[in-house]
Amino acid sequence: MKVLIVGNGGREHALAWKLLQSKKIEQVVCVPGNGGTASMEGCQNLPLSVNDFAGISQFALEKDISLVVVGPEVPLANGITDYLQSQGLMVFGPVKAGAQIEASKAWAKALMQKAGIPTAKAAVFTEAAAAKSYLKAEGVPIVVKADGLAAGKGVTVAQTLEQAENAIDAIFQGQFGSAGNFVVIEECLLGEEVSVLALTDGLTIRPLLPAQDHKRIGEGDTGENTGGMGAYAPAPIATVELMARVQTEVLEKAIAALRTAGIDYRGVLYAGLMVSPDGNFKVLEFNCRFGDPETQVILPLLETPLEDLLLACIQQRLGKMPPIVWQQGSAATVVAASGGYPGDYEKGKIITGIEEAETAGAIVFHAGTNLNTAQQIVTDGGRVLNITATGENFPQAIAQAYASIKHIQFPEVYYRRDIGHRFLKNE
């Protein structure tokens, strides 16, 4: 079968890499893809925008594409699944109505509250004055969120009143585009975050391995939020007992609430949780797609053929599938980023050492790369590469990732040197 993947990041490279391990997959096409997918045997790039629904549809129909997998949240929120399904294509990813669960934090919060899903206390505002008044009454620390899609950067955990007020002003002044029409202000939860990505066909929902992302740019989880600077799986803080509670108190309630709302949700439902020191948890947010960089540490451990799971979701037969099979051990990834990220950064810098990093034992997933006219791999984004490794345990996996990333070279390369620090501290 032929598969088309929409997106150009590390997540999409990892999806293509995993699918191409199967003998059932004849070819993968990435739209628009990156330097890594362009260089991978059995994979080709198609230079279309992720929002060119008509162009993607035309190509998929002409080339007999069996399955379309949508990576990023933006095309899902814009209705790509609805459009491609109307053209007779099989698509993995929720319809536009379901993608609201990520596209509007206010909508998702209302859904959680109505369904009785444990989540942080919150209020939604449409003007700065009212938001700041509420802020002063609640006090700090407090969390200020842009309502819509902001590439993982629309959240401020404010430690001072000034920080919180500046965040409110930035949102309402349009720093995050249409995501700034509403502001969501939440209580600040303490503990450790864990990402639970689950596959669903709208009736049955099955979690993948829990992962822990590292959102902040700086070591020790300091500095600005990013799209993610590294991750590992499975996250030991998500115990068997906790995951059983997440299944009944979060995942199953969410799918039931979506059905009650008349939404047939098929795809990934990703719950971002905060686990408190006493072992309880609350949902920070929902996402409507595979996480990035969580996918890059979950898929290397997956033994069940990925295409079988995706098709079971689309065809609403996930409940008849045998249990998902996982490789023993752990996986870890470290993000090599452009200097200046998550702020301004330059593109087009030549990258060397990828082959050496892979020879040293890593899987290098390309995130923000491209090919220049000389067919050299160059930087093309803020998060450039995901240096991923597996091992019998987490210390082995992260040591391998760091040993391999030393080979990666491009001007002003930056990466955190403490991915998994909470795990190692607990050990």
From TrEMBL:
Domain ATP-grasp: 109-315
Domain of life: Bacteria
Keywords, sorted A to Z: ATP-binding, Ligase, Manganese, Metal-binding, Nucleotide-binding, Purine biosynthesis
SUPFAM superfamilies named among the record's database cross-references: Glutathione synthetase ATP-binding domain-like, PreATP-grasp domain, Rudiment single hybrid motif
Catalytic reaction annotation: 5-phospho-beta-D-ribosylamine + glycine + ATP = N(1)-(5-phospho-beta-D-ribosyl)glycinamide + ADP + phosphate + H(+)
UniProt xrefs under InterPro entries: ATP-grasp, ATP_grasp_subdomain_1, PreATP-grasp_dom_sf, PRibGlycinamid_synth_ATP-grasp, PRibGlycinamide_synth, PRibGlycinamide_synth_C-dom, PRibGlycinamide_synth_C_sf, PRibGlycinamide_synth_CS
EC number: 6.3.4.13
GO biological process: 'de novo' IMP biosynthetic process; purine nucleobase biosynthetic process
UniProt pathway: Purine metabolism; IMP biosynthesis via de novo pathway; N(1)-(5-phospho-D-ribosyl)glycinamide from 5-phospho-alpha-D-ribose 1-diphosphate: step 2/2
NCBIfam families linked: purD (TIGR00877)
Family: Belongs to the GARS family.
UniProt-listed HAMAP family: GARS (MF_00138)
Protein name per UniProt: Phosphoribosylamine--glycine ligase
Organism listed in the record: Anabaena cylindrica (strain ATCC 27899 / PCC 7122)
Lineage: Bacteria, Bacillati, Cyanobacteriota, Cyanophyceae, Nostocales
